[in-house]
């Protein structure tokens, strides 16, 4: 146990020259033990950083913002109304007076497309928000209560899942008749199943975690637990689902318009405009082109953003 | 004994968005024919990456940057991918940690066993089948011929690990790398698997590299131990010396954090405080210095060289405490006179 | 396995029953519909409907009769077409729609799945980026927009293909492509992410460590596992193709069941709408059932879970 015994066989030459006081004891470096080289970032900051790096997703975001702005302010700026008919101007090709041309009743196509943006976007957003409310509540309760309730509630979802929902929407629209409000209701009430499943899955996973136990310990009731603790923590997947369900709703409405179940005239969604245009495709292609382009661009923008959000919000990708 | 495997200055890095992570940073070791060597260390210290580097199976964005891996005189790092494929499973094979996820769930045991045999030995189907049954019997799986038609989920965890071992042995490899082969198994099963590996080593004369963080597992199988920390080897030597006269403070820490039933004196379990460093920016000097109770000024400045201890030429350590001028540490015999 | 299939069959029947009940309820809720006694329909049609549905019977009796009709696959007379039954429409239109649908499904799988695999194997390389960009456009641009576009370019401008109608193979191309694009793009996206998921699994590492060639690893170990979740998409795919035919048949003037359905909607031929809804519902449930059973046979884990019970 004597220090500096040469007999231990270690030749100091192996080590080479050392500076003075080299062997002064300093002990562990506690401040360095927890040194984290990467700057600490919260979940949302981290997600935002990744989203910002995703070029296509950011393009999608900007296009969506632009379209929403156009939907709100656009119709006021064109100098025409969506219903004003000038029969002498019917089926005019795009020109300086009518940038997108006119339809078969001489209505300004640009104004109608901009006004259609209000309708199509509002359908997408309202239907998705209803989905979110119904689905998150249903899935949240199912996951939180668990046990037999969960079993029954999920079995119900499974069975409804088997029913082709497009057909139910058509039936509802046939019975209720065309109209914006009816579309909100039909789409909102039918497409919440996916959201319910996702929220339930999240809640099941989260409710076993410590912070939920902690919340229970301090006496949070079930409602508070669900609304304040569980759903906010399941926000990532919820936002992704929501973003991807908006284009889905816009698509479904356009598709309904094509089979004659869209909003009532003279109001017109993009779907209605496009389906009206198809009849005159040979002679007046712009009547199909502009609303079709608007639908496609919006769907594309939401899909880009949704994909980007999914990548950005998926913590498994963090490394 | 000639060295079967000679690893020299092996360097493997991962190129992440945050920068280069040097997961393995200049590692040297040998494995003799018929020898079992253990590589131990905490998770994230580079054990598994070392193993995967030997087989050149580093996933993106990782890369073997430098060094040589000589197997029976042939440098694997320089081989073409096609030649390397013939080494994998044939000369060197691997047993992974989790038998639950390491077997393909949609293929039968037989298919998975036979494809390796047929890949390397170019034999007929019934011959491969016979060999598959033979290896299953070697790893003591009852009613082996019936197992061939079964799927992985029909077997217990221990059985699946035996299947993994059978698969590794099926082409008579010279070296089997076992990456935490027992970690995900029950304790009783763990002992059986280690016992099995020991028997198989004796029966086949193969070498084994055992990668583990469980020092209890090591003693049963390996004859030599390599201790890794933060991508580097800090100490290596015969298993009895690593246990009996460990020289590196990190090795002490590892040993002290293992409960032992046979300890003569009453011992407290002592954890190693802190966490392994982020290899994006490893500490200057000795990589263990931020967590070392005995850290000295020089440990923060210069990397310690390897020095022989115990005079038998087998036990080496990289630690400044070995320097003749370093102060003594209570309860520790420096270098241990021969 | 038997139990697994039984469970699925049972769930399908429950779903069909719910759908039938919903349609029955909605039928009776339609103002001016066939089951309110408003007689502004041709007398002959009304007699037909009365004879069929016994409108004087109590509601529960009518409900049971209706269910019985559905079970016997008798979907009743048309509300607008004298002397025609819904079954007639199905006999005439369904084979056409089925032909179009099957061609589209084959097209989308035959192209979509290999594209997804290649994309995954070239992850983040240019091949991947380009195909995924095209695929996301494919899922974003609806078929009812692709169809007029194709028609405008290939039929009206270039005059390579006939613009509409049904009969020759040249008339199949455009509607089949328009229908197939969305599922094709979806297949390639799903297949890509499924492949990426599988490639990172431990058993792929095992397969590589065995010294298998990259082709064997990809084909035998990765693709087989990765295709499995794709099979579950076949159900929704068939639904998408089917509802796609509503519009595509309309645009290309194809005499299929989809066009019949849209015609019924536009002309408020209520009994036909309801009959076809039930038919479509039953068809999709059957297809989902078939897909579930195929899945059960493909995935050994499900077979065994059933056998143990």
Percentage of residues assigned to helices of chain B: 25-40%
Radius of gyration of chain A: 30 Å
In this structure, how is the largest beta sheet of chain A organized?
A: none
Which protein chains make the most extensive interface, counting residues with beta carbons within 8 Å of the other chain's beta carbons?
A-C, 39 and 46 residues
How much helix is in the residues of chain A?
55-70%
Structural class of chain A: mainly alpha
List how many beta strands of chain A DSSP finds.
0
Global Rg of chain B: 21 Å
**What name does CATH use for the topology of the largest domain in chain B?**
Rossmann fold
Dominant shape of chain A: flat
In percent, how much strand structure appears in the residues of chain A?
under 5%
Write down the CATH class of the largest domain in chain B.
Alpha Beta
The total of helices of chain A stands at: 13
CATH architecture name of the largest domain in chain B: 3-Layer(aba) Sandwich
Q: Note the gap between the termini of chain B.
A: 23 Å
CATH homology group of the largest domain in chain B:
P-loop containing nucleotide triphosphate hydrolases
Name the strands of the widest sheet of chain B in spatial order.
6-7-8-3-9-10-12-11
Characterize the largest beta sheet of chain B: strand count, sense, and whether it forms a barrel: 8 strands, mixed
The proportion of residues in beta strands of chain B is: 15-25%
Question: Can you describe this structure?
Answer:
The complex is a heterotrimer of chains A (319), B (338) and C (309). Chain A contains 13 helices and no strands. With 338 residues, chain B is of the alpha/beta class. Chain B has two domains: 220 residues, 3-Layer(aba) Sandwich (Rossmann fold); 110 residues, no CATH class. Chain C has 309 residues and is mostly helical. Chain C has a domain of 175 residues: MetI-like fold. Chain C is flat and about 75 Å long. At the A-C interface, helix 5, helix 6, helix 11, helix 12 and helix 13 of A face helix 1, helix 5, helix 6, helix 9 and helix 10 of C.
